[in-house]
Amino acid sequence: MSSPSESLLSVVPVLPVVVVDRVEDAVPLARALVAGGLPAIELTLRTPVALDAIRAVADEVPEILVGAGTITSPGQAKQALDAGARFLVSPGSTPTLLGAMADTGLPFLPGTSTVSEVLAVLEAGFTEMKFFPAEAAGGATYLSSVASPVPAARFCPTGGITAASAPTYLALPNVGCVGGSWLTPKDAVAAQDWARVESLAREAAALR
Ligand code: 3PG
Distance between alpha carbon 83 and the CA centroid of its chain, in Å? Predict the structure, then answer.
């Protein structure tokens, strides 16, 4: 699919946040998400194979928008770009990390969980961000409270969100999409049960 020229938050209602342990799982998993109607994937840099998984999906599943998540150091932003990532996500924001992600030229979602962090990201010139860890940091009630004083900020909340709680977030004026790992349960991925992933993706795609 094409790059998200207008908004990273408008591509899919639910952004699958994925931890891949075996690089060979990445391509069939990405294809299952596309088949279920979710043409975007955040592959987290939490395993040694993550960059290779991004490279494989970028090469073999061009119809999915592949991004790199869990960017926690400036060097990872460039590594993700080189692997073929088309967007970046970080769990938190520091000035150095913001600068490194911006330097890649890719769209990105810097992580925030406090109003001061949200204001700092806005001051740096970015209006779209991740809210993490969403449930632990106050959930939909918290984001709803931020909408009135800080209307410019738009969020992709992630962390502890489920199929049951996603609609409450998606109904908020400052939420464009939610992220979560519930679409790729560990047991389903271990069993290479791509039909289950496709089915969970289909349910999530209908949440918009
Ligand atoms: C993330 O990095 O966004 C979270 O780990 C996803 O959270 P979840 O596993 O609770 O959905």
Answer: 17
